[in-house]
Amino acid sequence: MSQKRIFTQEFKEDAVRYRKEHPELSLQKVASNLGVSMSALRRWVILRFPIKIMALLVIVALILVSCNRGNSMKMKISEKEKSIQELLTKIYSEEQLDEISDLQLDMNGLNSEYPIQCLREIANGYRVAYRSIDSVLLVYFDFNNSKLFSQKHVFSKTKADFKNIKIGQSLDEVRAFDELGDYLFLYTGRTDTPRLSSHYTIDGYVFKISYDEDLKVVAIETELV
Questions:
Q1: pLDDT, tens digit (0-9, with 9 covering 90-100), for 10-45
Q2: Sign (positive/negative) of CA torsion 58, 59, 65, 68?
Q3: Integer Cα distance of 103 and 13 in angstroms
Q4: Domain range list for the chain
Q5: CB-based contact 221:177 (threshold 8 Å)
């Protein structure tokens, strides 16, 4: 009965080193030269470089993910500090905005039909903006670039005009100031809906105004569309 050969750790490391230094030789030839089985040599190589192999696999996976995301979205995210007034050089008619709103295309398809000039990354996906002289159309997409929904907002005020709105004013005063604002919470018929109105401006901002139970202004937030 043949005795099982026992290899020292030093021999195993030398074997792995020999394999690395002779890439022109097949694994079978290296094993034959060393007088060991292919399975043993393969096992030593894997055990010698597990971290490097895993790191390589992670890098490859990240590259593939990056490439897939790059292929799925062909547009660049717009600069955060620029407003739609700066970004949107194309002004559409109201009819064209309605056509864009009705399209059921993914982001790349929409970009092919109506080139995207303003693209923002938001919490749950992406937001694309188009504008006419009197309104802005916002089209929302998930992170797979599939369309979620679209909304058109009419504007008549500028950012500077909203200096007239103060904490403590009533909802009626805000509505008198901006009749074109979005006061959707008034028409839901529900008491748990956030009391929030949205107001889009000519120069590319949105004001979000919160109200208390007495419909008094308690907070005013603003951000670029």
A1: 888 888 888 778 777 787 888 888 888 877 877 777
A2: negative
A3: 63
A4: 9-72, 84-154, 160-224
A5: no
